[in-house]
Amino acid sequence: MGVLRTEAAIRCYKCSVARYVHYINETIRLCEDFDHSDKYIVDCPYSTLCMKRIASAKISDTISGIERDCASQKSENQKLENRTWHLEVTIEEPYEEGCSELNDKGGEEH
């Protein structure tokens, strides 16, 4: 499997639960302001699926957050060809379409 070309890429909505602490060269849009407008759409050249993650935690009240993005499918590996190492980028298919639920209650198992 080779690199997925940009013209074959899908487009997804992208927004975050919170602004990141570290600096990245990208505009961070918060999901709390999400309005399905074009300003939230990004190209996903290394994805075949979009992702929407909903998380909630009950502390004293229930706190919820949503994150939208391209599905994480890009894999980078070094490949030896003709005695020279080259970066090989592939798109993995680790996901099935649909929803899944993880209810780990946020704690460690003992």
From TrEMBL:
<protein>
    <submittedName>
        <fullName>Uncharacterized protein</fullName>
    </submittedName>
</protein>
